[in-house]
Amino acid sequence: AVAVVANLDENRAATTNNDIFLIPTKGGDPVNLTKANPANDNNPVFSPDRRWLAYRAQTRPGFEADRQHLMLMDWQNRQVRDLTSDWTLSVDEILWSPDSRFIYAQTEEEARTSLYRISIQDGTRERVVKNSFDQSPRLTPDGKTIVCLREDSRQPDEVFAIDLASGNARQLSHVNSKALAQLDMNPVEEFWFTGAKDARVHGLLLKPPAFDPSRKYPLVYLIHGGPQGAMQDDFHWRWNYQMFAAPGYVVATVNFHGSTGYGQEFTDSISGHWGDYPYEDLMKGLDYLEKQYPFIDSTRLAAAGASYGGYMIYWIGTQTKRFACLISHDGVFNPESMYGSTEELWFPEWEFGGPPWESRETYRRWSPQNFSQNFSTPMLVVHSQLDFRVDVSQGYEAFTALRRQGLPARFLYFPDEGHWIIKPRNRRVWWNEMLGWLEKYLKGDGSRTE
Questions:
Q1: What is the pLDDT of residues 125-156, one digit of tens each?
Q2: Is 299 exposed, middle or buried (0-12, 13-18, 19+ CB in 10 A)?
Q3: Residues with catalytic function
Q4: Rounded to an integer, what distance in angstroms lies between the CA atom of residue 375 and that of residue 405?
Q5: Mean pLDDT of all residues in the chain?
Q6: Where in the chain is the domain with CATH 2.120.10.30?
Q7: CATH 3.40.50.1820 in the chain, residue ranges
Q8: CATH classification of 184-442, choosing from 3.40.50.720, 3.30.450.20, 3.30.450.40, 3.40.50.1820?
Q9: 306, 331 Cβ separation under 8 angstroms
Q10: What is the pLDDT of residue 126?
Q11: In 3-state terms, what secondary structure has residue 408?
Q12: Cα angle for residues 305, 308, 310 (degrees, 5° grid)
């Protein structure tokens, strides 16, 4: 038999109820193995001895960022156990040991990843890989070595082998080594500060090439999307720290309330609070950076973000005048109108407490559109026609509000892209426009008129 994942609910736009179905290879009707759970069940993996089925499950219907539990089903009696009931982190990728005694589970943890070995007998666990950013882990047939893709802020993905006994990692591929040897790139540095609700909040900072601590540098503040996501120590193929730093900017980012990798309670805290806790974290993080790093020029600040990060750019634009310029990519500007045009109805219904006619106060409380009379900062608005998650009309609304008030604004439109800029040719245009906008306001004469 084959295990597959499908959502067969009548209104799939309003539900996250993925289920695991068993399809007999010799024919017959599919069997729903997870019918009892109205939330998301996914990623089924059979054990090598075929006695067990491991999979991930969430417990709250309609919430895409709920914690992913590691579930174990006894294939003989279909009894299910939660192996991570006492965890606060979500399980990402899962794989079996060759002897079917252990499951290896990868998690996101404080801007990096960790790999845990979990006993299926009693759920005891041991962290066997930490402090790196790894993807697609696979075990060798003898169960002694993990092979994975590894990256960090200075290196795109390469293939690594990790000896599980010693923890030593060995690089197997060198696809990018020759090109990287010609570049001057700094590693990210970590910082922590006290943010909203007196919580410890984590951030990353990257210095530009040929950094001189005696100089003053403009700062580019990057804001992640999700909103339940995180900025990590990776070599992102779009929001790449090194590309933003290359013209001579310090780059910083904060994993504000709602970010993943810091426990589920921290992740949950953003729902219904789009404009207060995260914004407070970002402003307190900026205060900390200006105080702790004297090479940051507080008169030349820029911020950029996509999706929820784009929303936060609009929100920042209505709440403060600290920035010389802003960049919003595919951001939510008007949550009420966004609700009527997104393909994911479950998303705004969870984040704002229901549809607009049931929770209008929350939609309007956190709507940048309602405060757009406060806009005062030049802004680049980026949006794409094929974005069905955050419709292009959100960008039109924001651009109209900016220009109607006579503010410097530019609209970058991609007719053939969706929520992300995928095509290499378009990505070149995207980078040229982004860096051009930053240069105009961070390296120009400081004028805010266009």
A1: 999 999 999 999 999 999 999 999 999 999 99
A2: exposed
A3: 307, 387, 419
A4: 8
A5: 96
A6: 2-178
A7: 184-442
A8: 3.40.50.1820
A9: yes
A10: 96
A11: coil
A12: 40
pLDDT higher than 70, residue 450: no
Q: What share of the chain is helix, strand, coil (3-state, %, to 5)?
A: 25, 30, 45
Contacts of 444 (CB under 8 A, 6+ apart): none
Residues 6+ apart with CB under 8 A from 238: 306, 420, 421, 427, 430
Which residues are 306's β-sheet partners?
Answer: 329
DSSP per position, 373-391: GG--S-EEEEEETT-SSS-
- Say what the pLDDT of residue 445 is: 53
Q: What's the pLDDT tens digit per position in 74-113?
A: 999 999 999 999 999 999 999 999 999 999 999 999 999 9
What ranges in 207-345 are assigned the alpha helix state H? 241-245, 264-268, 277-292, 308-319, 335-339
Beta pairing partners, 42: 56
Spatial separation of the C-alpha atoms in residues 229 and 158, rounded to whole Å: 23
- pLDDT tens-digit series, residues 407-443: 999 999 999 999 999 999 999 999 999 999 999 999 9
Query: Does the model's pTM come out above 0.85?
Result: yes
Spatial CA neighbour of 310 closest among 251, 395, 378: 395
| Res. 448 pLDDT band, cuts 50 70 90 | very low
Encode pLDDT of 229-263 as tens digits: 999 999 998 899 999 999 999 999 999 999 999 99
| CATH class of the domain defined by 2-178 | mainly beta
**Which pair of tokens denotes residue 33?**
């193995």
Look-up of token digits 């200006």? 290
Answer yes or no: are the C-beta atoms of 450 and 378 closer than 8 Å: yes
